[in-house]
Structures are given as structure tokens and as C-alpha cells.
Amino acid sequence: MYSNKIELSEENVKKIITDFYDLGEIISIIPLESGHESDNVKFSTPEGDFVLKLHFYPQLDGIRDKMNTHDLLHEAGVKVPIPINTRKKDFVAKYDKENLLVVHTFISGEPIYREDEKTMFSWMKWFGKQFGIFHKKSKNIPLEKIKQRVKNKDMDSISPPPGDWVLDRYKERNSILPEHEKNEKILKDFVQFLKIVRELDMSSFTAGLTHGDIFPGNFFKKNEELTGILDFGASYECLVSDLGTWVMYTSLYKPENRDYFKNFIKPYLKYSEIPIEELKLVPLLLKSRAYLQYFYFAFRIHNNITQGLEEEELKDASKHNWKGFTDGIYLVETANDLDNNYFYDLAIQALQDT
């Protein structure tokens, strides 16, 4: 996190909204949970309820791309936070070069936390439906329209996993990886993984604007009604890449959870209308997420990063990051043991079940 970050105090929030936006007088201000990439404050005006987000890593084009992604998805009918333009018709308020802020509408409702596995698994059919609806609407957004609004250089073609950030961390492996007896095996597996994915023809898969880091807590609801999906990235990828992330966060890759995966995937396929054959890519996408977890927490350990931890976790941040790193090793090993058709075969079974 950079050193000249402003605080989202009540005084600063009022000044930012007054200086940059036409949203009326602030009625109330409520701090929200700080995330890995931003501080967040809810505020209300006569125009409605909004969230002010201060980004820790001030990359103007990337933040603007994210907001344009939200706007495109909103226009397509996906329930997302709606970005609000500044007076200068920009989705980013430039307080100064190191403090970039955005405002979007507040999504009411409650998430289903994955920590409560019993409840989470009982909602898998609902998740599958909502996930499928999102992907169907996303894939129907014309690529030319996306390229006009989102300036990310990767929009011209779909790159194979795992992405530039992971590849950059792999190049730094000798300096960032903490000592662990399984590092050598994990790195050897990673090289083999790269050889496989580089031979993939990514153009053969259904593409669209993906979420990028989707898990149950991103879905907000009131009763059984979806109120919104939060925290989208800004990537144009094969849509089933989101499924690799989903099965990682929900542990649907575990054999004991195969029935929950079947509950999820049947409505997903119905509403998304994505060819079932594309599920054959999910094991590789799960591996990609596993390597991301492995390198991400190695990076956090090396740089002593504590951002995004809750107050109780901050008391022993190194322990939390080390657990994330060893969980990454377990996930890599587990993903490597999966058959290439594991999720595809389960989906076939789900469609055959009465």
C-alpha cells in the first residue's frame, strides 16, 4: 500500500463528493470493510445510497477499465453496482496522482458466506442459475463494443492462463518463495502446466467479460432475489475461467462435494447456454487458480503485506499469509490429481439425473 493514501474521514468524504460529483448533500456516512485493494465508505444523499472506493494501487487506466466493465455489464442487464460519473464525465475522481477514487451505487442485501458450508451448499442450485444468467448476458455483449470502452491491451485476443502477474512472480521465484520442502515439485509441475496451456486454442471457447475472482460472498440477495454481483475485474476471457475460480473457493473439486457441484452445474448450463464440452477446460483453470494462490501468498509473505486482513488476523499476519501459502500447495497437489474430464463427467451425470 502506498504511503500518501488519504483517509476516508467524514470531512474528506464530504469534500470529495462536493468537489467531484453532483449527488446532492450527504445525509450519512458509514465506513465499510476494507479490502485487499481499496478502502470503502457508504454514503447517502437525496439521490440514493452509494459507495466511495479509494484504490490502494493507483493505476488510472486499470481502474477506469473496471468501471467501464461494470457499466457495460449493467447495460447488458447484469445486476452490478452502477458506476457514477464525475462532473468531468469520468468514472475516476483524481484527487491527486496517488489517490484515485470511484463512486458506484450501493447494493443492498446479504451475501452467503462460504465459511458457512451447510448454508452455502444448500444454495448451489440458486448460485448456478444466477451464474448462468450473468454469463449468458456477458457473452452477448459485442466484442467491438467492449474494445471501444475497455482499453486493456488483452481485449484483442483471449490469452491462456495463468496471466502475466503469475508469470512475473514465477520469474522472481528465487527471491520471493519462502522455504518449503515442496517448492521444487510445485515449480516443476508449473513448468509442465505452462507447456500444456500454451498449446490451447483459446478462441474455441465462449468468451465474455468475466468476474475474475468470483465466490459466494460476491452474490448479494434479499430472500431468494439477487440484488447484485460485486467486485468485478476487467477481463475478456473464456467464461468458464470463472468456474475454475468458483470450484476453488467453494471446494467443489473435492470428491465428497460432487453432488453439490452437480446441483450447481445443471442450472448453470441451462441458463448460460454454454456448450457442456467447455467444462473439459475447468481442471486446467482450477490449476491456474491454485498456482495463483501459491505465488500470491508467497508474494505477500516476501513483502510483509497485511492489507485486507481483519483486525483479529492482523495480530498474527505472518501466520495468516503462511496458511494461504500452504493452502496453495495443497490446492496445486489436489488439482493435479483430478482427471481431465472430472467436471465434464459430473455435468453429464447431472443432466441425466431425473
Question: Short description, anyone?
Answer:
This protein has 354 residues and is of the alpha+beta class.
Residue-averaged pLDDT, rounded?
A: 92
Name of the CATH superfamily of the largest domain = Aminoglycoside phosphotransferase (APH), C-terminal lobe
- Rg (C-alpha, Å): 21 Å
Spatial sequence of strands, sheet with the most strands:
1-2-3-5-4
Number of helices: 14
CATH architecture of the largest domain: Alpha-Beta Complex
Question: Could you say which structural class the secondary elements and strand pairing correspond to?
Answer: alpha+beta
Portion in beta strands: 5-15%
Number of strands: 10
- N-to-C terminal Cα separation, in Å? 52 Å
Structure description:
With 354 residues, the chain is α+β, with helices and mostly antiparallel strands. It has 2 domains: 10-105, Phosphorylase Kinase, domain 1 (2-Layer Sandwich), CATH 3.30.200.20; 110-352, Aminoglycoside phosphotransferase (APH), C-terminal lobe (Aminoglycoside 3'-phosphotransferase, Chain: A, domain 2), CATH 3.90.1200. The protein contains 14 helices and 10 strands. The protein has helices spanning 10-20, 60-75, 117-122, 124-139, 143-149, 164-171, 173-176, 183-197, 241-250, 258-272, 282-303, 311-314, 317-336, 342-352; strands spanning 28-31, 38-45, 48-55, 93-96, 99-105, 110-111, 207-210, 219-222, 225-229, 235-238. The strands form 3 sheets. The protein has a 5-stranded antiparallel β-sheet with strand order 1-2-3-5-4, sandwiched between helices. The chain has a 3-stranded antiparallel β-sheet with strand order 6-8-9, with no helix packed on it. Strand 8 (219-222) and strand 9 form a beta hairpin. It is globular. The N and C termini lie far apart (52 Å).
